[in-house]
Structures are given as structure tokens and as C-alpha cells.
Specification:
The strands form three sheets. This protein has a five-stranded parallel beta sheet. Helix 8 links the parallel strand 5 (271-275) and strand 6 (293-298). The protein is of the alpha/beta class and 383 residues long. It has eleven helices and nine strands.
Length: 383
Amino acid sequence: MFMEDLGPSVREADDLDGVAAAVVLHGTRTAPPLPVLDQDRLRTLPARALEHLERLRKADRWQDADDVEDALDRIAQAAEARSAGAMLEPFGWVHSEFHPTSLHIGERGWRLLDFARAFTGPGLLDLASWHGTIEPPHPVRLRVFLEQYVTAGGTPDALARAAGSPPRPGPWAGTACGPLNGSWSRPSAGSTTRPPTPPTSRPSAATSPTSSTSWRSDVLAQTSPWHTHAAQRTAAGLAEPLSVHARMEWTTRPGQGPGAEILGPDLRGKRLLELGCGPGHNAAHLATRHSARVTGVDLVGLQVRRARSHYGRLNNLTFVAGHALHYLHASDEQFDAIYSVFGAIGLVAPELLLPAIAQRLAPGRVLASLRPPPAARRPQPLG
């Protein structure tokens, strides 16, 4: 037996830690001796559970279980449809107890614990159970978690949409979480730091869309160039303070197109929010040249690090690392304008993002964005 002293935990695991662990787990080859839960086994699982319940009753055990039987009957009736697509990626390791307490965050990185009930099957079962299986499911929070997983390098199939059906966790992974009509609670605030580097090298994971993904998965996969670009710029040398750009840029061609006037004629003292701020050039311009109070949010921690290195000395300017939806749900601020240049608008599901924006945008104010159409070529990083 091999034992390792992991030392004390330095903090609790958050959603970004869970995403990082899931990407590593799903990029690792599964162990052959593990039991396999494929589409057929998943389809027959409720019926087999009913058979086991009947055997227990005949043995005079667990007699008061009518509510369990009713629930299994309903699930069994929907099993054929709900099991469809269960073998799409990620299919492999299923931890089966994947939640924040199964991650140990120590000074030397993180470790995923408690593999005693692991099996080979649909990885979405783990993703769907990360926030717990006792309380009613929270569809918005789960969708945000899946989008974070895809943008971190998880397979875009995690957001695949069957014809006429909700995103895949709704049909069958949701079964593991309880009823789909549960009450919603407000998501927790997004983390402002990136997850620690795993102690082992991270396996490569597919980031290119496949034929089974929707156009939104294709757009979500476009986020990977931003992280790669930031890593290349960081590797080329330390980020240094920069002079503020003379104008706001909406395109990859400096000097062309509109400028800050899109956001309003007088921005002095106005509260502005940029979703997908990148290295911070536009946010710095608005805070300095127009005396606005600007917050820039970006999912890529390296981009936020660059932005703070370039412009962290400036007043009225804040950069936050985290998912746009998490920030919008956690914030209590009202903004005079919210804008995005090849950022979250177009990369995050609009049916989730736009209502969240509406909650944070003052009545009669401005929402402005520039994004490519679904079939367009990927945008190039700005600076």
C-alpha cells in the first residue's frame, strides 16, 4: 500500500478547481477492470433497481418504499429517451462521488480522492453531481459549470444538443440530481483566482468541435486561442505598464470603425462593465480618457494578470478573473453600459447571459457587443 501525506488543506475547492480536475480526469485512460455503465446499462438501470427493490420486499426488508418505487417507475418510463447519447464524450472515468469535498487543495496542488466507487461511463454524471445531489438541481449554475468545463479544455460534446431536446445534462444526467423542476437558488460568486496547477502533467483534451455539437459549442471552443495567446505573450517577457490607447477599438484593425461614442456621449463617472476584457486596453482607455468607472471581467486568468500588469496603477479601473455569468449573478451593481468585444456575448449561451445582463443594466442604458457570426472565422486576439 502506498500512502502520501497531503498536508493540511489550504482552502475549499471551488467550481474552477472542479473544472480543472474534471478535464484532467476525462483526459486520462480508464482502468480496464472497472465496471462499465454504457448506454444499454444506463437504459436498464431503473428496471434493475425495481427488480432489486422487489427482492428486498420479498425478504421482508425495506417495506415502506412506495415513494422510491413511484420514482423508479417514472424514470424507467423515460429511460429509453434519457439514455440516448450517454456514450458521447466525455466517456471514461466516472468518479461517482465528484464534489468539492473530494478535492484536496494543498500547498503542492490538488489531489482527487475517494475512487472506491469509480466506474467507466458517462463523465457528465460527475459534472452534473458536482454541486450536490440532495438539494433540487440548479439548471443555470450547472450550465455555467459545463461552459467553464468546455472553455477549460473539456470536450464540447458536454454541451451537445439533441434535436428538440434541452442541453444533454437535462435529459439524463439530471436524473442523477433529482427532479428537474426544483427551485433555483442564486449562484455563488465566481472565483477570482485560477485553479492550482495539477501535480501531474495535464493530458491533452479535445477542444475542436465535432459533428454532434451545436454551433454554440463551436463558439465556446473559440476561447482556447485567448488563453494560448496570453500564454505566448507572457512567455515572451514580463508584462509591463503600458500607455493608455488613444481610442477604443472594436475591431482587429486599429483606427477603423467607431469608438467610445457607441457607449454614450458623456461617460464621466458612468459605471461600465466589459465582459471579456482581455489585456485591458479598452477598459483602460475608458477609465482614463473618459473618466468612467470601469470593471473588466475575463475567464482567462492569464489575461487578467496581463491587464493588471499593464494598467493596475490606474484609478477607477478593476479587473476580475471569473466567468461572466458568475460575476453578473453575484454582483449587486447597476451599470450604465455593458459591452463586449469578441468576449462573453457570443461565447456564453444567450438564453442565460442576456437575462443576467438585464438584471445588472440600468433601465434605458446601453448594451453593445461585437462578435462574429456562428460560421465566421475565429476572431484574433487583440493585443
